[in-house]
Design goal:
about 15% strand, about 50% helix, 16 helices, TIM Barrel, binds zinc ion, binds hypoxanthine, eight-stranded parallel beta sheet, 8 strands, alpha/beta
């Protein structure tokens, strides 16, 4: 590994855009399918990985939801979360904000309580073992109705303290943020922070809607904002964080190749962009592989990497004290 890649690896980092089901490793998928008697059209790690060959968001989501269908009991959810948090520890991701999508498991008779019991225990173990910090985000599925999303928000009421925010994921086109205005108003009244995927495949209008109708604190992806100058000015002036996922964007053909990615141009323009992995096992890398890919294709500098990571800590939903502590840890690292 080059000195620069070792340095990237060692840097204390935060991840703000991660779907827990997107961290399900192929071997674990096969193991759980066998354990739970779920039939899947794959019989080896290689055959699963061969399917990681997507044309667009929907072709990915079809496989992603198939993968999530093998999870059943508390232990399954424990290992899903613990596998990801172990990876974070290995990659020096000291804080992470994780999207959890309980609607995905409902058709298989899995309750919110089962899911959260497993996830909560894994997070507590990672904290106790390694001092890791993790927050969960309730992510709602936009291909389903707003009423179903509201019903899910209602059913996590007994577990309000498990979630710092709500978000909106899944098929973007045809499901604009405006479909979920009532949901977001209700969540805001309950004190949740607000995020939404917008401007990944969808047009800049979806980002405007997320800002003006949903009143989000952050935008997931948002890379299509550059098509609208007025929007870029707004995002810069208000320093609305964008949680960008470079390998995801290339794998889902939002950009043809990493050399075409606009992340560093956005950073240079003064947008509050951050680097994240989205669905690491499906898109060919966790956070460090995303940074390495930017280094290889776009000649990322140390200064830019430090700015991107500082943005992540600032854009996190941690307390001001915790943010300051991580930013000072980052400064010490930069000076060392
Ligand atoms: N976009 C929308 N929905 C998703 C994604 C994504 O990148 N990953 C998992 N669900
Ligand atoms: Zn995402």
């Amino acid at each position: 590994m080059s000195d620069f890649k070792q340095w990237l690896w060692a840097m204390p980092k935060a991840e703000l855009h991660l779907h827990i089901d997107g961290s399900l490793q192929a071997a674990r998928l096969l193991q759980l399918a066998a354990k739970n008697g779920v039939e899947i059209p794959y019989n080896s790690v290689e055959s699963v990985e061969q399917a990681y060959n997507f044309e667009d968001l929907q072709s990915f989501l079809d496989l992603y939801y198939l993968g999530a269908s093998v999870l059943r009991d508390e232990e399954d959810f424990y290992f899903l979360m613990k596998d990801y948090l172990d990876k974070c520890h290995e990659q020096n991701i000291v804080h992470t904000e994780i999207m959890v999508e309980p609607q995905t498991y409902l058709p298989y008779g899995v309750t919110v309580e089962t899911v959260l019991n497993g996830f909560r225990k894994a997070i507590a173990d990672a904290k106790a073992q390694n001092g890791q910090s993790a927050l969960m985000i309730l992510s709602l599925l936009r291909h389903l109705s707003e009423d179903e999303a509201i019903a899910m928000l209602d059913s996590v009421a007994p577990y309000r303290d498990d979630f710092v925010a709500i978000g909106l994921a899944s098929s973007e086109l045809g499901h604009p943020p405006s479909k979920f205005e009532r949901l977001y108003a209700k969540a805001k009244a309950q004190g949740y922070k607000l995020i939404a995927h917008a401007g990944e495949e969808g047009p800049p209008e979806y980002i405007w809607e997320a800002l003006d109708l949903l009143h989000v604190d952050r935008i997931d992806h948002g890379v299509r904002c550059v098509e609208d100058t007025e929007l870029v000015v707004r995002l810069i002036n208000e320093q609305i964080p964008l949680t960008v996922c470079p390998l995801s964007n290339v794998r889902l053909c939002v950009f043809e190749k990493m050399a075409d990615h606009n992340l560093l141009q956005m950073l240079q323009q003064g947008l509050c962009v951050t680097v994240n992995s989205d669905d690491p096992t499906y898109f060919g890398g966790f956070m460090n592989e995303n940074f390495e890919s930017l280094a290889d294709a776009l000649a990322l500098t140390k200064e830019q990497a430090l700015q991107l990571v500082a943005n992540s800590f600032k854009a996190s939903f941690l307390s001001d004290e915790a943010k300051a502590a991580y930013l000072s840890q980052l400064q010490d690292f930069a000076a060392s």
